[in-house]
Description:
The chain is α+β, with helices and mostly antiparallel strands and 301 residues long. The chain has two domains: 5-189, Rossmann fold, CATH 3.40.50; 198-293, Methionyl-tRNA Fmet Formyltransferase, Chain A, domain 2. Helix content is 26%, strand content 22%. It contains nine helices and 16 strands. It has helices spanning 5-14, 41-48, 63-67, 85-89, 111-117, 153-177, 198-201, 209-218, 283-287, and strands spanning 23-24, 29-31, 36-38, 53-54, 74-76, 95-99, 122-129, 139-146, 225-229, 232-236, 240-242, 251-254, 259-262, 267-270, 272-275, 281-282. The strands form five sheets. The protein has a four-stranded mixed β-sheet with strand order 5-6-7-8. Strands 9-10-15-16 form a four-stranded antiparallel β-sheet. A hairpin with a 4-residue loop joins β12 (251-254) and β13 (259-262). α1 (5-14) runs parallel beside α2 (41-48). The longest helix is centred in the middle third of the chain and has 25 residues, at 153-177. The protein is elongated.
Amino acid sequence: MGTPQFGATILEKLLTKHEVVLVVTQPDKKVGRKQIIEFSPVKKVALEKGLEVFQPINIRKEEDYILSFDFDIIVTAAYGQIVGTRLLEYPRYKAINVHGSLLPKYRGGAPIQRAIMNGDTETGITIMYMAKKMDAGDMIAQKAIPILPEDNQDTMFIKLANLGAEMILPVLDDIEKGIVNPIKQDESKVTYAYNLTKEDEKIDFNKDATTIFNQIRGLSSEPGAYFTIDNNIYKVYSSEVSSLQGKPGTIVDVTKTSFTIACGKDSITFTEIKPQGKNLMKVRDYLNGKGRSIIVLNRRV
């Protein structure tokens, strides 16, 4: 059970050793202005491998179909729906989840993004038994990796997916041998990584530049952080912290290739920008066109 590339990486690893009798993923989405149907990365892998795919709109209401299959264990990796207790208890070896955080920290749907946005220098993978309560099951295995200053959401998803893939086969071997020693989570240390909202994407330049830097890389490349000028949205996916000072939200420097906006402490510099309705472009190119009259010194955003 999985949906994004994180889950697809785990699925590919499972297929090197185990028989996957059914793949469960989220329904297809319509994307872009042309509303083209797009399959999830997990579905793409499943179809390439000739696997049966099930895409319930509400898994709790449609679980009988899954229960008609004969299987030993459920492996979930960023599936995206809450699975009911009846289904979790059905398989011989129950159900396990590959989760992108060092539980009990960051239970929830956006653990990787939240860790980066909060400026954490470490995260990891926890494989645990699934329980009725979200991400609260007993832990089977856990490994940590650093979050480097140059990392963003995209790079950490890749690193953590690879780490999860590295961990999953030994865990399944131990479960089958009956030699796992699950550890209960310390409820006093629980934190949550709630799904991202539109408000999380908006940059507040009253905050310090480092906080904004972490916000931008935690949201890169999807959905991206943004600010507005004259009610037009400008998305940004990368930035640098600058020591320039000024009134928060004011453009304090403009060069041929970049511009800098003052924050509550220090400032933030951009060399790429995505104006509303346009593709991502170099600031240099934007300033050579329409941006010349928009990105100007001392302007408030």
